[in-house]
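[step 3/7] inverse_fold.run input=structure_tokens len=341
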């Protein structure tokens, strides 16, 4: 039972979240409606209520509360009907209590599609095994070549929890389990919440290890369509970053070129205002050193661009053979070396 404690200037209210039907904004206040009909007027805005619910509800459990627009938070546990045409949303306890709420048509249509997608995905996960063990044993859902000696017989377990989240657990393997971070570096893990797109390595590296995307644990076929889709996303993200860095370097180059002229102008201004005559040799040194100083100030930009390109080489690998893969192959959706697609 999850309870929320609201302590305002004039009152203290203990709310049983699991019995709440909805919260509805009323100016700077919020109406609370229990499923049994009990109501309260809370002297807090609905955004503050939303924040408190998020802080109170356990992170390991999927919260049933969702905000619809500016003025409504509902408990999806009691959701029974959505009518886009009538612009109505009905909450019911399948007994004596039922509430009909007015929701704008565009908002309700979007919510209806999200709910439908949620139940389709839930059915898909229910149709699959909720956990699998991966290793070199015969029944492993991810087929690992027999020469990968760094992989244990039963190396790792991947589970899909009731809330749809993925969890990885190392099964006391001999050479460890590693997960790749966003920079392409692998880190050893023993138990970790992962994403479907995460890259996992069984073994401590080298030819005897095995690398795969978590998606393969529950893949319905042997194709690499999902992996190539993720590679295209990574490629676009990296190219956008490189383009921004190249633009920054180009601007720095122009600043460097114009810095000498800026020094000439500054010397002329100083001479005209203060009557100070700058020695020609000093002026020459200032003009010559200005681009060098600017280059030193922005020298990190070029290094960052090199690091981005190295990172691209680390993360853009064929999902099957593990070799670097070209942009053309990624867009085509097929490795030109091992023919994975």
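[step 3/7] decode complete -> sequence:
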């Amino acid at each position: 039972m999850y309870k929320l404690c609201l302590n305002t200037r004039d009152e203290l209210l203990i709310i049983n979240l699991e019995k709440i039907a909805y919260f509805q904004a009323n100016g700077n206040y919020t109406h609370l409606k229990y499923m049994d009909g009990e109501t309260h007027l809370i002297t807090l805005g609905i955004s503050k209520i939303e924040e408190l619910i998020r802080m109170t509800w356990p992170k390991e459990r999927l919260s049933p509360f969702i905000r619809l627009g500016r003025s409504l938070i509902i408990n999806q546990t009691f959701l029974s009907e959505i009518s886009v045409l009538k612009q109505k949303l009905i909450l019911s306890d399948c007994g004596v209590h039922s509430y009909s709420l007015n929701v704008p048509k565009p908002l309700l249509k979007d919510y209806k599609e999200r709910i439908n997608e949620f139940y389709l995905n839930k059915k898909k996960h229910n149709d699959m095994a909720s956990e699998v063990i991966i290793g070199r044993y015969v029944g492993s859902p991810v087929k690992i070549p027999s020469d990968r000696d760094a992989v244990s017989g039963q190396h790792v377990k991947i589970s899909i929890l009731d809330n749809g989240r993925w969890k990885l657990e190392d099964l006391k393997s001999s050479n460890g389990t590693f997960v790749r971070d966003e920079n392409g570096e692998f880190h050893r893990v023993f138990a970790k919440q992962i994403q479907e797109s995460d890259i996992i390595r069984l073994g401590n590296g080298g030819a005897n290890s095995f690398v795969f995307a978590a998606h393969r644990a529950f893949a319905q076929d042997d194709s690499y369509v999902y992996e190539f889709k993720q590679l295209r996303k990574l490629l676009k993200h990296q190219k956008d970053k490189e383009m921004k860095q190249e633009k920054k370097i180009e601007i720095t180059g122009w600043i460097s070129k114009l810095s000498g002229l800026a020094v000439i102008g500054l010397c002329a201004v100083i001479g005209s205002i203060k009557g100070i005559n700058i020695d020609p040799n000093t002026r020459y040194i200032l003009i010559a050193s200005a681009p060098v100083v600017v280059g030193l100030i922005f020298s990190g930009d070029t290094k960052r661009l090199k690091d981005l390109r190295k990172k691209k080489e680390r993360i853009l690998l064929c999902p099957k053979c593990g070799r670097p893969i070209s942009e053309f192959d990624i867009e085509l959706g097929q490795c030109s070396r091992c023919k994975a697609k």
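[step 4/7] annotate
The mean pLDDT is 85.
The first helix runs from residue 46 to 56.
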